[in-house]
Structures are given as structure tokens and as C-alpha cells.
Design a protein that fits this description.
One of its GO terms (molecular function) is superoxide dismutase activity. By secondary structure, the protein is mostly helical. Helix content is about 50%, strand content about 10%. The N and C termini lie far apart (about 80 Å).
Amino acid sequence: MIDFALGVLMLKKYFIFLFPAFSLFAKTPTYDPQIIPQTTAPINIEAKDFSHLLGHLKGIDDDLLKMHFTLYNGYVKNASALLTTLVQMRQNGKDTTLEYGAIERRFVWEFDGMILHELYFENLGPKPFLDRKDPLLLKMTMDFGSFEQWKKNFVATGLIKGVGWVILYQSPKTGHLNNIWVDEHNINLVPGGKPLLIMDVWEHAYITEYGLDRAGYIEAFMQNIDWEVVSKRFNDMESSK
């Protein structure tokens, strides 16, 4: 009996000594997919409704707008489908494949196209005048010399050859206003910049009504800017500083 007790004590002694060594061979804990569920359902981005613009724009007819809305909804649908695919590929460990990289690039293109169209439609409306005392007008005068000089530069930027967008941006570094050209949807975007006014200059924005007369479309666009929306974007940014 005494020998048995001594044996137990010795076993405890060696177990305590060896336990840290045993722990080195323990498996690294892994999550159980049954315990931590993953998102596999389709991701649906909701399209915005801009039908309130119908019948209220001068020089941009309803048929053109309806076609443009349909195209915008295509961007929303594609962005949703691509985002769903990317999530599923990551969950299946395929995020280092060439296919994943190609889809990632396409997703950014579709997503940017969706967002830019929303900003474009949102700054259209029958409120084409900017109040003389509006802080945005004062800022335009400060940075461009006058509203007319800003408009001249904005229109000239819109006539650059290519397909894309013209955006009145406020610089995140200096606060200055600049009119910039964005190729397609995702080239030349200003990181951190605040888009204040967005004009679509892809052919689909005007060709059914203006043919190749981009200048005529730009003139119509300038008469259909909702300056209340544009001014609010500027003032919201100023108040957030």
C-alpha cells in the first residue's frame, strides 16, 4: 500500500514536470464552421429611385432618363452579384487566385459606376440657381475668380475626349475646389476628396437625344443642376471640419 502511494506521488511529480512539454504538441484551436456561421446568402444592394426627375428636366427628356435609370440598375445588380461572389471565394480559400483578382477589379469598376450615377442623379433637379450669399459661391469665386470662370472650366473639362465623368471636388489637403476628369468610373478619383457636383459624360448620358453633340448635352446639364444639393454637400463638409 505504501509502495502504491509513493508511486502515485512520483507520477504526479513527473506529470507536473512534463505537462508544459505535452502542451507543445497540442493542436492549434480552429473554429468550427458549425459554431461560427458564414455569410453565403446573396448580397443585395438596393437601387435608389430617381423617378421624381421625370417630367422636371429641361433638355433631358424622359426617355433618355428612363434608359439611364435602367443602366444604373444594371450597375447595382452587377455590384451585388460580384460582391457575393467575392465573399464566397474568400470563404472557400480562393482569394489568391487569378480569377479572384479579376473579379475584384471588376467589382470596383461596377461599384464606382453605381455610386457615381447616384451622385449624378441626386444633383439633378429644377433648382438651377445658387444664392449670391451661399458659401459655395463665395468659395468658387475665391478659387476660380468668379462663378463664370468656374463654369467655363467645368464645361471645358467635360469636352475632354474620352468616356467618364466631370467632378467638382474639394481637395482633402488644401480645401481648394477643382474640376477633375475621371476616366471610366475609377481612374483619377481623388482619395479623400469630396465630390460636390457630378456630371456623366459617357455617351449613354446623351447620345439618344443629342447624338454626338456633347456640348449641347453639357449646356442642358448646366441648366438642370440642383444647387441646393450641391451646396449642402459643400456645407456639410465644411461643418464636419
